[in-house]
Amino acid sequence: MADISELPDITLVNKVKENACSESFNELSRRHSKLFYKICQNYIKVITSFGLSQSDVFEEKDIVIFEAILKFNPDRGALFSTWLGNYTRYFCLNKINAGKKMPEVAGEEEIEAVFNNRSVEDYEGKAPTLDFEVIMNTLSDTQDNRIIDIFRLRYDPDRSKKRTWANIAQQLCLTVQTTIVLHKKGLALLREAIVDKKLDIYC
């Protein structure tokens, strides 16, 4: 059996897509993390000018790589590294665009701002003031307790630094991919609650 480090990117991508292979994802992340960081550095000054820190951006590495894997189409003739590079640029540009305009409802940055007690203001000059436990109670509507566990570990108010996705996945006996997907489901649930006026982060 071939050493996983000797397998080409496309083989690893297919293993992640078809079998949710955590080992293949970890190898792709190891190979291409430097590319992600290098591209982000080109945009980091602009992104941080809107209130995000460099660590806020870098901590999304696994999410960006995972989404790039899922959306990669080898039939277009590009290498995975080229695709990831472009995907990372779009990620950075989206961060910049989000900073330039106020979304109609709170998105991931605004929700995470509440968790991290950052001052992200809307067009009326308001900043999120909602208590951590109130948001966690909103997540109790989900039937999947793993989502609640992920949010508690990721945004533990007693920790000065957020746990990494790999650390959370290990604690909950999940793959990194599953952890990321469940986290995004939790964010979607919170956004839905805000749209339906069940949750007001500017109360």
Report on the structure:
- By secondary structure, the protein is mostly helical.
- The chain has two domains: 4-100, Rna Polymerase Sigma Factor, Chain: A; 108-195, Winged helix-like DNA-binding domain superfamily/Winged helix DNA-binding domain (Arc Repressor Mutant, subunit A, Orthogonal Bundle), CATH 1.10.10.
- 64% of the residues lie in helices and 0% in strands.
- The chain has ten helices and no strands.
- α2 packs across α4 and α4 (61-71) crosses α5.
- Residues 102-107 and 117-129 have low confidence and may be disordered.
What tags apply to this protein structure?
203 residues; Rna Polymerase Sigma Factor, Chain: A; Arc Repressor Mutant, subunit A; 2 domains
Q: How many strand segments?
A: 0
Q: Indicate the percent of residues in helices.
A: 55-70%
How many separate domains make up the residues? Answer: 2
What is the string of SSEs from the N terminus onward? HHHHHHHHHH
What is the architecture of the largest domain at the second tier of CATH? Orthogonal Bundle
The N- and C-terminal alpha carbons lie at a distance of 58 Å
Q: Overall 3D geometry?
A: globular
Our count of helices gives 10
- The helix-and-strand class reads mainly alpha
Largest sheet: none
Ranges where pLDDT stays below 50 over 5 or more residues in a row are 102-107, 117-129
Rg to the nearest angstrom? 18 Å
The fold-level CATH name of the largest domain is Rna Polymerase Sigma Factor, Chain: A
Average per-residue pLDDT, rounded, comes to 79
Q: Can you identify the CATH class of the largest domain?
A: Mainly Alpha
**Approximate strand percentage:** under 5%
